[in-house]
Design goal:
CATH architecture of the largest domain: Alpha-Beta Barrel
Radius of gyration: 23 Å
Bound molecules: ligand LLP
Number of strands: 21
Number of domains: 2
CATH class of the largest domain: Alpha Beta
Largest sheet: 9 strands, mixed
Helix content: 25-40%
Shape: globular
Structural class: alpha/beta
CATH superfamily of the largest domain: Alanine racemase
Length: 426
């Protein structure tokens, strides 16, 4: 990952913009997104599908990073997005994102969220459970609207990834279980309701997946289920949505495969035993925005424990990137203002939060650092800002988009006043 970085006069460059200038202008911690990379990744998925001559749709899983500006990039790229809450839906609509290209996910959508989705005519509601089918039935009855739906199935396939990142196994909280007959029951309910237009089936097996095996099994399984249900209900899906989860490389141990590897593996399975291949939708989140994101920090204090560890602290941490503490996620970093200096030591990068677990990186090789140096943690674009919080009452960082030498502030840094904005007196 580090080898792919570009630098100029010893400074890390992000899509033609000097990262040290960004720090001077916008402060730290700072999230920076290379928007050319975002667009390229979408185009890679596109060309992979086109090479296989499949009908397809790319739906950006916006939970990975959901701010108005990124929905606008997705609109420009003409892809769909999926949202999982009223808040994400609101943000997408506020950004001017077309509602008919929005898929609404979630395992416990409220009545109010479903009303909001129907009122705004979202493209498709992903039905997850029986309670939701009933709620949606009521909403549609009252509003006399119709809406497209898909059934989220639990196919009984589990991805080899972190436990928190698995979603397709039979005991998952998501979706209708196929084995026990729940899925069939749900299908019948939906087919019997003229206000619900069934577009097809959805499944998502997990996140940060590296091999193609899980996706091949999933494609096969979805066709098998479709055939079984066709025999019984005479219904063939127009769309099969295989979810997201395509892994990215955070450090040298990760060995990701390309968009094209994933899509061609899926395509082979589909073409093998399916006469009428449905349109294939995917929902990548991490792989679209993850590698495009950098978090820039200023280096502050340092602690050297003689004969043991050295800690180099930065002015952010678990509040802007919870992933190391929550999933033991591994990242890599560089000193953005010393790109032409050789590494001389290995240190721990610690955050500023009052918690021992607030270590962003264990064992990072770095050149000699001093107070005020800029540390850039790489590949932080997915599930960084979107999972950011105000622990210890630290304001959330600003977000800057860069593209071809231009930088634009797209989310302002939170202020101390923002922190107390909702607080009342007692
Ligand atoms: N579709 C569905 C139904 C999902 O549940 C998810 C992720 C995605 C698509 C997108 O998956 P991706 O392509 O981004 O892997 N916070 C965790 C990841 C949680 C993923 C939840 N669902 C992390 O930081 O690793």
């Amino acid at each position: 990952i580090i080898d792919e970085l570009t630098s100029k006069n010893g400074h890390l460059m992000i899509d033609g913009v000097d990262s040290v200038d960004l720090v001077r202008e916008y402060g730290t911690p700072l999230y920076v997104f290379d928007i050319s990379k975002v667009r390229n990744q979408i185009r890679e998925f596109r060309s992979a599908f086109e090479k296989e001559h499949l009908n397809y749709q790319i739906s950006y899983a916006s939970k990975a990073f959901a701010v108005k500006a990124i929905y606008q990039v997705m609109k420009q790229e003409n892809v769909h997005v999926d949202v999982v809450s009223g808040g994400e839906l609101y943000t997408a609509l506020a950004a001017g994102f077309p509602s008919d290209k929005i898929s609404f996910h979630g395992n416990n959508k409220s009545l109010a969220e479903l009303q909001m989705a129907v009122k705004n005519h979202v493209g498709v509601i992903m039905l997850d459970n029986f309670h939701e089918i009933e709620l949606l039935r009521q909403v549609l009855k009252e509003s006399q609207e119709t809406i497209q739906v898909m059934l989220r199935l639990t196919p009984g396939i589990s991805a080899h990834t972190h436990k928190y990142d698995q979603t397709g196994q039979t005991d998952s909280k998501f979706g209708f279980d196929v084995k026990s007959g729940q899925a069939k029951k749900a299908l019948k309910l939906v087919l019997d309701n003229p206000q619900m237009k069934l577009l097809g089936y959805h499944a998502h097996i997990g996140s940060q997946i590296f091999g193609t095996e899980g996706f091949k099994m999933l494609a096969q399984k979805m066709i098998e289920i479709s055939k079984e249900f066709q025999n019984e209900f005479n219904y063939w899906p127009q769309v099969i949505n295989l979810g997201g989860g395509f892994g990215i490389s955070y450090n040298e141990d990760d060995d990701p495969i390309t968009a094209s590897d994933f899509i061609s593996a899926i395509s082979q399975e589909l073409k093998r035993d399916c006469k009428e291949i449905p349109e294939i939708w995917i929902e990548p989140g991490r792989s679209i925005v993850g590698p495009a994101g950098y978090t820039l920090y200023k280096i502050g204090s340092r602690k050297d424990i003689p004969g043991l560890e050295s800690y180099v602290s930065v002015d952010g941490g678990m509040g802007d990137n919870i992933r190391p503490a929550l999933y033991q996620a591994k990242y890599e970093a560089v000193v953005a203002n010393k790109m032409n200096q050789a590494d001389v030591e290995t240190v721990h990068i610690s955050g500023k939060y009052c918690e021992s677990g607030d270590i962003l990186i264990d064992h990072q090789k770095l050149p000699q650092t001093e107070v005020g140096d800029v540390l850039a943690v790489l590949d932080t674009g997915a599930y960084g800002y979107s999972m950011a919080m105000n622990y210890n009452r630290n304001p959330r960082p600003a977000v800057v988009f860069v593209e071809k030498g231009q930088a634009k502030l797209v989310v302002k840094r939170e202020t101390y006043e923002d922190l107390v904005k909702l607080d009342g007196n007692y």
